[in-house]
Design a protein that fits this description.
The complex is a heterodimer of chains A (79) and B (197). With 79 residues, chain A is of the alpha+beta class. Helices cover 35% and strands 34% of the residues of chain A. Chain A has a four-stranded mixed β-sheet with strand order 1-2-4-3. Chain B folds into two domains: 1-117, no CATH class; 122-197, no CATH class. Helices cover 64% and strands 4% of the residues of chain B. The two termini of chain B are 29 Å apart. Classes of the chains: A alpha+beta (79), B mainly alpha (197). The A-B interface holds A 9-12, 14-15, 18-19, 21-22, 24-26, 43, 45, 49, 52-55, 57-59, 63-66, 68-69 and B 1-4, 8, 11, 113-115, 117, 119-124, 127, 179, 182-183, 186-188, 190-192, 194-197.
C-alpha cells in the first residue's frame, strides 16, 4: 500500500484540518479503493481531535499514534 | 501508544471538567476583584511599558495611556482603578498575572506531555501573513470594543451582559467572513466539507 506523507509540523489550527482535508480530497480515489493511505504528521495536539472527527464523518477509518514530539494520524478506507 | 475513540470520549469528559473549572475561576475572579476576567488591556499595557522605555517623549503625548478603563468600588467602599498606561494598578495585578499564568501553564503542559520543542520550520508564508493580519485586526478591534473575547465571551456572556451580546453580534459574522477568506486565499480552493454518510 502506498503511504502519502503530509508533514504539517509547525502549523496550527484551522490550517491543519483544512490542509489535511484538501490532501484527502486530492487523493480520494486511491484512498477509497484502498490503494493508498494518508499519513498526517502534526505537532498540534488539537488536530488529533479535529481531523479524526471530520474524516470519520466522511466515512474513513482513522488511527492516531504519538511519536517523539509529534503525532501520526493515518487515514485509510473504511474497514 | 494507541488512543482510539474511547480516549476521545475521555477528552470530551476532560473538556467538560475544564469548562467547570473555568466557570468557577471566572466567578472567583469576579467576586475577588469586582471585575470580569480579561486579558487584552494587558497587551496595551505591555505596549505602554515598551513605548515609555524607548520613546518616553511620545508616550506622554498619548491620551489613550492616561485613560481609566476600570473604575469600581469594592464591597468595603474603596475605589479600584486601572487603565492601559504603564503603571502598577488593578489591570496590572489581574491581567498581567493571567498573561504570565497562560504562558507558564502552557509551558508546564507541553513539558508534561513531552510536546515541548523549538520550532525548526515556519508555516507557509500565506499562513504567517494571515495570522499576523488577524492578530493586528484582533488587537485593534479589541481596543475599540474595550475588551476581547476573554472579557466578553468567557466572562461577560455567562453573566448575561448586554455588551457581550452586542460583541457576539459582531463576532459571529466576522468569524464567518474570516473563514471564507481563510479557505479561499490561505488554503486554496477545493476544500471539501466533512459530511455524515
Amino acid at each position: 500500500m502506498n503511504n502519502i506523507i503530509l508533514d504539517i509540523r509547525g502549523q496550527i489550527c484551522p490550517a491543519c484540518l483544512l490542509i489535511s482535508l484538501k490532501e484527502l480530497n486530492n487523493n480520494r480515489e486511491s484512498i477509497k479503493r484502498g490503494e493508498a493511505s494518508l499519513v498526517v504528521l502534526t505537532d498540534h495536539r488539537d488536530a488529533t481531535r479535529t481531523i479524526p472527527n471530520a474524516v470519520t464523518a466522511m466515512g474513513y477509518s482513522v488511527n492516531v499514534e504519538k511519536r517523539d514530539g509529534y503525532y501520526e494520524i493515518t487515514i485509510k478506507k473504511e474497514r | 501508544m494507541f488512543f482510539l475513540v474511547s480516549s476521545f470520549q475521555k477528552a470530551r469528559k476532560f473538556f467538560f471538567i475544564f469548562l467547570m473549572v473555568l466557570l468557577s475561576l471566572v466567578i472567583l475572579i469576579y467576586i475577588s476583584s469586582h471585575t470580569p476576567m480579561a486579558i487584552s488591556t494587558a497587551y496595551a499595557k505591555l505596549a505602554a511599558y515598551t513605548e515609555k522605555l524607548f520613546v518616553p517623549e511620545h508616550y506622554i503625548t498619548l491620551e489613550f495611556f492616561r485613560r481609566v478603563s476600570y473604575s469600581v468600588y469594592s464591597s468595603k467602599g474603596d475605589l479600584i482603578e486601572g487603565g492601559p498606561g504603564a503603571q502598577i494598578d488593578h489591570i496590572f495585578v489581574v491581567e498581567i498575572s493571567l498573561l504570565l499564568g497562560i504562558v507558564f501553564g502552557s509551558f508546564i503542559s507541553a513539558l508534561s506531555l513531552r510536546e515541548f520543542r523549538i520550532l525548526k520550520k515556519l508555516p507557509p508564508s500565506a499562513q504567517l501573513i494571515s495570522a499576523f493580519t488577524g492578530g493586528l485586526l484582533l488587537g485593534f478591534s479589541s481596543r475599540m470594543a474595550g475588551g476581547c473575547n476573554v472579557k466578553f465571551l468567557m466572562s461577560g456572556l455567562p453573566m448575561l451582559s448586554i455588551q457581550a451580546m452586542v460583541f457576539l453580534l459582531g463576532l459571529v459574522p466576522g468569524s464567518y467572513i474570516g473563514t471564507i477568506i481563510f479557505k479561499k486565499f490561505v488554503i486554496g480552493d477545493k476544500v471539501p466539507v466533512g459530511r455524515k454518510g
